């Protein structure tokens, strides 16, 4: 079976029953789901796991600063044996990854890394438009430089198409992915590529698009496809005929760069990897990292809010975004704060959810017999919605706070996964026509936090402050390493 963040409560219950009855041979699941499902982890540990396998094992180190729940979830499940698989692992990071995966005395096997068919070319380019006020001449120069990159990317894509291959263009943002695709389509139309039999298919790819599976399928089955993507593209897409990898605006780390160019030429034929680079590419990221650490007064105020919001019946607390603002935290910094909370072991940060539930009486709310409902949907209806509808003289919305619902059984049993179960149950009620959901109101969002270490808020605040400062230093060092790599002698024309 496979369990994902979109799996229903019934699918979770079916999986649990198969584990209890020893009918499940293999389970595919993200470590973050394990991290936020304490009852499910307990079931796995009680029944016993023969083999715990970590695919793309390097991510447990590379993403430790951004998604630390990956490593936490992996360390919370016991197994007779552990196996980590990755195509890219630097020797200096090997011990860190081994520790993240809780391996004691591992056997390390390494295959050959030399890829003689990959030609790497780093092109130092003029700086693009920078922040703040700039002169007309600077804006014209930036636009000209952007058009030059588009023209160069188009020529490389034509080269890949002529060799019956595909192209991946990596960009740093969703907006640049969409804009670059439009510019490439326009440039190809101006050159009448379709009329010459060299038609190319340009597709944008990032986490905000709903057609990602369609793009992946097209990339695997068709020649002459150009995907303009953020880092979201590549993992799990094993296309042997990638002839060109283009980094449109540098790379975030040397490890990430090596991972991405490694997706080219997997059929053994020559592939061309070009990186357009300028030292200013990382300035925005650098400033963001430098301003992320919070002063001690702010971290202490945040920890006090977390402990105040913790439900008395269980370890789960829910912070409104307003709570972050009252603690002096900007909305753009919340993800970094939550990651730091996870790294220090102060809390487990879950997905953002709507704080309140608003529902109107559905078409079948007064009809019999009752539709078949999941355990959680039935509890949500019987305990929270049906009494509210019965007390109403008019068809008004029943409103409930997620924190109130999660503070009682059966939702309390899920710990930090409680809000997800509540919203899944709400969708089940809507599908059964028992309620109509009103999403028009802009409700505040909440962040579930399962507090792990009940220590003094002042001590917890100091620990959080130190962790964020250490993290910022590590991230700046990664950016500096990319700078050194791209400006080193001999980097302009080398084979990996």
What brief labels describe this structure?
496 residues; alpha/beta; 43% helix; single chain; seven-stranded mixed sheet; 16% strand; Rossmann fold; 18 helices; 18 strands
Describe the structure.
By secondary structure, this protein is of the alpha/beta class. It has four domains: 2-100, no CATH class; 118-277, 3-Layer(aba) Sandwich (Rossmann fold), CATH 3.40.50.300; 287-352 and 451-476, no CATH class; 356-443, no CATH class. Helices cover 43% and strands 16% of the residues. It is built from 18 helices and 18 strands. The chain has a seven-stranded mixed sheet, with helices on both faces. Strands 11, 12, 13 and 17 form a four-stranded antiparallel sheet that branches. Helix 7 packs across helix 8 (174-190), helix 12 crosses helix 18 (457-487) and helix 15 packs across helix 17. The chain is globular, with a radius of gyration of 26 Å. The two termini are 39 Å apart. The model has no long low-confidence stretch (mean pLDDT 83). One of its GO terms (cellular component) is cytoplasm. It catalyses: Couples ATP hydrolysis with the unwinding of duplex DNA by translocating in the 3'-5' direction.
């Amino acid at each position: 079976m496979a369990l994902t963040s979109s799996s229903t409560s019934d699918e979770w219950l079916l999986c649990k029953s198969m584990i209890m009855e020893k009918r499940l041979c293999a389970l595919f699941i993200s470590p973050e789901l394990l991290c936020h499902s304490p009852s499910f982890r307990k079931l796995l540990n009680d029944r016993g796991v023969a083999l715990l396998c970590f695919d793309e094992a390097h991510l447990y180190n590379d993403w430790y600063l951004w998604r630390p729940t990956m490593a936490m979830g992996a360390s919370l499940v016991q197994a007779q044996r552990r196996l980590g698989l990755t195509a890219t692992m630097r020797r200096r990071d090997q011990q860190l990854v081994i520790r993240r995966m809780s391996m004691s005395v591992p056997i390390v096997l390494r295959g050959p890394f030399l890829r003689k068919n990959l030609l790497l070319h780093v092109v130092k380019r003029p700086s693009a438009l920078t922040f703040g006020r700039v002169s007309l001449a600077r804006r014209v120069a930036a636009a000209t430089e952007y058009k030059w990159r588009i023209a160069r990317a188009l020529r490389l894509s034509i080269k890949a198409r002529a060799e019956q291959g595909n192209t991946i263009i990596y960009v740093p943002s969703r907006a640049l992915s969409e804009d670059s695709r439009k510019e490439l389509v326009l440039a190809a139309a101006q050159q009448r590529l379709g009329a010459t039999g060299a038609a190319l298919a340009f597709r944008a790819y990032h986490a905000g698009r709903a057609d990602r599976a369609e793009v992946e399928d097209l990339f695997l089955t068709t020649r002459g496809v150009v995907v303009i993507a953020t880092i979201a593209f590549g993992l799990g897409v094993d296309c042997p005929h990638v002839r060109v990898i283009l980094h449109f605006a540098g790379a975030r780390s040397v490890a990430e760069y090596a991972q991405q160019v490694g997706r080219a030429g997997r059929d053994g034929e020559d592939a061309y990897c070009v990186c357009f680079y300028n030292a200013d590419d990382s300035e925005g990221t650098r400033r963001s990292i430098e301003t992320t650490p919070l002063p001690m007064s702010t971290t202490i105020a945040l920890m006090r809010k977390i402990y105040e919001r913790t439900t008395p019946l269980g370890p789960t607390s829910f912070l409104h975004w307003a709570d972050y603002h009252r603690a002096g935290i900007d909305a753009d910094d919340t993800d970094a704060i939550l990651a730091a909370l996870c790294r220090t072991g102060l809390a487990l940060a879950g997905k953002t959810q709507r704080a309140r539930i608003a529902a109107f009486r559905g078409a079948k709310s007064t009809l019999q017999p009752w539709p078949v409902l999941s355990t959680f949907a039935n509890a949500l209806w019987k305990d929270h919605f049906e009494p509210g509808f019965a007390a109403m003289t008019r068809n008004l919305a029943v409103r409930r706070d997620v924190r109130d619902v999660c503070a009682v059984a059966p939702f309390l049993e899920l710990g930090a996964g409680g809000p997800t179960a509540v919203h899944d149950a709400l969708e089940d009620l809507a599908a059964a026509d028992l309620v109509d959901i009103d999403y028009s109101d802009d409700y505040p969002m909440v962040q579930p936090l399962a507090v792990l270490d009940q220590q003094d808020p002042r001590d917890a605040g100091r620990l959080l402050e130190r962790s964020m400062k250490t993290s910022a230093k590590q991230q700046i060092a990664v950016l500096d390493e990319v700078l050194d790599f791209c400006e080193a002698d001999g980097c302009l024309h080398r084979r990996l």
